[in-house]
Amino acid sequence: MKIVREPQVLLGMLEGGEFVGKLQNEMNAALTALNEAAGPKGKAAGHVTVKFGLKVEAGMVTITPDITAKKPKEEFGSSVFWVTEDGDLSTQHPRQSDMFDGPREIRDRDAG
Fold this sequence. Notes:
Number of helices: 2
Mean pLDDT: 86
Structural class: alpha+beta
Strand order of the largest sheet: 1-2
Number of strands: 4
Low-confidence stretches: none
Helix content: 10-25%
Shape: rod-shaped
Distance between the termini: 108 Å
Order of helices and strands: HHEEEE
Strand content: 15-25%
Largest sheet: 2 strands, antiparallel
């Protein structure tokens, strides 16, 4: 009778030996995503979880492994707009005149 006591042996036997390769692929994908998200000086966090579903029936155990991974979400840059009195978006502050629209008409100070 062959007894399986070491977890690494069990991992190597699951799915006819193919589960370990799937786990390695998921680890590599998570590390690649984390590395890209962190950039050269940033930080990123995630995890890879292995879960074993166990079902015992008539003295026999069925083990069903599962892999889940949490990878960082893609970050998007923000954009700034102003809201007009009508509720529209504007790329210019609604209370400031555009200095690039050309010359403005100048009113005479003495004219009342």
